[in-house]
Amino acid sequence: MRILVCVKRVPLTGGKMVLTDDAQALETRHLGFTISPHEECAVEEAVRIVEAEGGEVVVMTLGPAEAEEQLRDCMAIGADRGILLETQGEEWDAQATAGAIVEALHSEPEPFHLLFFGNESADAGGYQVGIRVAHALGLPIVTGLKKIDLRDGSVRCERDVGGPRDVYEAPLPAVLTVLEGLNLPRYPSVPGRLRAKQKPLARTAVSPPAAQLEKLRLIVPEGQGKQAEILGDGAAAAPRVVEVLQELGVA
Amino acid sequence: MKVVVIGGGIVGNSLIGWLAELGWTDLVQVDKGPFPNPGGSTGHASNFIFPVDHSKEMTQLTLESMRQYRETGTLHECGGIEVARTEERLEELRRRMASAKSWGVEGCRLVTPAEIKELVPFVDESILLGGFYSPSVAVVDSLRFGTLMRERAQAKGAQILANTEVKGIDVEDGRVRRVRTTRGDFEADVVAIACGVWSPRLAQMAGASIPLTPAVHQMIDVGPVPRFLDSKTAVDYPIVRDMDTNMYERQDGQGLEVGSYAHRPILHDPDEILSIEEAALTPTELPFTQEDFELQLEHGLELVPEILGDESVGIKYAINGLLSLTPDGLPLLGETPEVKGLWSAAAVWVKEGPGVGKSLAEWMVLGEPEIDLQSSDIARFYPEQRTPQHVKGRAAEGFNKTYGIVHPGEQWESNRGVRVSPFYDREQQLGAVFFEAAAWERPHWYEANAPLVEEYGVKPREHEWDARWWSPIINAEHLAMRERAAMFDLTAFCVFDVVGPGALDCVQTVAARQMNVPDGRVIYTPVLAPGGGFKSDLTIMKMADDRFRVVTGGAHGMADMKWFRDHCGPDAWIEDHTSALCTVGLWGPRARDILSSITSDDVSNESFPFATWKTVGVDGLGVLASRISYVGDLGWELYVPFEHGAALWDAVWEAGQPHGVVPAGIGVYGTTGRLEKAYRAFGFELDQDYDVVEADMAWWKVKAEDFVGKDAHLAAREREPAAVCCTLTLTGNTRFPLGREPVVREDGSPLIDAKGRRSYVTSAGMGPSLGKYILMSYLPPGDHGQLYVQYMEELHPVTVEVVGSRPPFDPDNERIRS
Description:
The structure holds two protein chains of two kinds. Chain A is an alpha/beta fold.
């Protein structure tokens, strides 16, 4: 089984977002980076499948040179190799990103049986890249998945629809976009970390095509701010706490 | 007193609790974050304590902190082992044994690899040579302790405000007046900044500086560890410090925490720390930079393969935690020299926090802490040591020394050459080897004097450690001085004048000895702390009724200057001449011949006796000559304005050639010369722990006037001293202890005086004219049998040459008064 997982390097933010002076991006000078929880589950799922069935997990990203860090993180928990489509650091829209991924897949020696994406990226949240890649490759796609089972030559997928679940079955190869909660991703072990340093990583420089979308500026929406309500002090607060717990339906 | 304590980490909490305990009632504590973890370094601290440090002050603060943690039930003793992978480290662990005994840390012992394995079964002992086991190593709950201290203060009426950010600190007439916060203004007589990595920013609001830099300490937590699943406590096994890789491994519940001081120094700017809202975790838990930790993973894997090699054990938490680093690695405590009433309680780690809180509270409320904080006094820095360049340079250099093997003589490499005397070029040409003091470059010895080594038959030291940062040239320079004459660069002296109608009142209050003396006198005097211990020792020249010139050592000069300024009334003030005057010291039997050949003024013993000063003419220059000596020989300190320095040096040098003058370094001035004369040094023999009688320096009559520490001093004169500063010599000259080693009996047991203080070597160095290696130490009275100094886990026999201050060389001081 050959599985591709596409991930995106995104800033690890706190509660308050700060924009750069030109309002074109998040101020990330003092932030760390990660991949989205959806993508963490995608990598975990791919690694579990290959651990059970054999094969290869390839993790791919489009991003700046520093995105190697995220590829190594994925390799530390079991991905076998990485592909970095290296940009100059500019943000690409979904269409361009999907195009570059499809282009890169042409140079892979063999096609993949499964292509995993997170349901949406943690920063831009466009919900499009997986769908666009599937469309370009003419593959079936199922989105928003919470459960995946491989059968002979096909994949059974479940997605939450609020209560019951929709179940889909798709022939392989297929594109799947997944949601956090699909599984519980493992932490990297120290040997895993050390192995990740040695695993192959291919870098290909990519240049952005003429943008189809133009970003004017980012705006941080007026948040609700912190809405802390002090329920009381000491034992006297107990009745109000019970009330709140009942309102929340946990008591 | 209205007090505002800013900061709710381990330091602020300890301080507010102790201030309340000592009876201050008008207390406010603010922190911009929530309690119990407002987001500073305390919140992510690893919370373990290894008590033994080579510094007496730091060990005392740590032991006091452990006492408080234990008393509040927030301490869990688990033991700890510092392990050695190299022979050099084993030697360092032997030094640790000496420090443990000197400072009274009980139960420490060296352990074999097999014993380490028995104590910590998950290490691979095959890569280890041995270890230093401290059974009292503990893990503490610093957040819980902080809460208890806040509650203690609250119970006594203190106002505690979380989520309250300081927006400004108002200063009027040099005094702090109020703190402006997001919850209103608070009038204040005393403001303490206990803000950890943010402290510089707060100090700046008041126009003061707290010279520290936030720096990264990397830490990961792995788990669950199969071996720990049935653990009964959070830490069942001793904590391991893998000293040679600058790492530690400690159990934390079902996990193992691995921390490092090995990576490149990663320094931050206090202004760039994210706010609580912006930070993904807390503001001081920065995103982990994996690339800086790669090597550490490999090292960790080598030492604890059972855990870190286990594929099922995941890295669950990894941070770049911020902590505070200072230029010299020591805390920043005390009132800031810039603003009265503004106190620094910064650069303190969890292991010292409660002790620092108590000590600072004592200092504020009682005027003097029980533990001497002279090394940590924030007043110690010169402006040159407060610059970002200095702070960052030294912090970066010091970071990797956290677990390093630091020789007592080790010199800093960064930001050197900052303060140089007018003789610097001449000294360079003479091959001076420069050591640094208070940012000054001072020749420690001169390679140009190498031929003297053979001339005087000085032997090298066999052992590399004993010979490091040392040269036999020092002893040769010393012998040349005693036979001929030597000239010294003493420009690093801190020199300031107390001026004005109230000058006499100020110096009388500060100095223990009588200062109402005729013009032209030079008085060497102790400066006492209120409790009668030493605050400093220095010389004062009486220039005029309204002018006294204070000359003190460079290292402690800034703190001394603050102490005098603090005692200036409205009609006295301080003029700092440190950077205006340079100093040549000229001593030796030929000194008078040399000086008289370049001046027409009378420098005979009759007209220019010891302990006086005069202005003499040299080549048209007015030279202030002060006849005093710290090397115990005939001669003078010669002061001129900086711009005349080179001319003075050249004049003395030229005139000295027929008399065989040599340049000599601080190796002679600070060690060999003074030790032969049993002259005590501040910070070594003299500190707050010992009084004048114990130092055997009470040979002067107590004046009628009041002075700081007088009552305590009079009381000390009335009682038998619990210990007396003695001159010892080493019987065999094979190894050369460098100071701070314990003095013990034949069975290795320590000498403990009636006040509970242990005997240790306060200073050590050769006495070349005596042909003996000298050690100074306070010894309790009585016969202790044969005594030894414990050095590198060997006992070296010593002889008590002199009990008290009588000099072993030239005991009647004939030279100095000749």
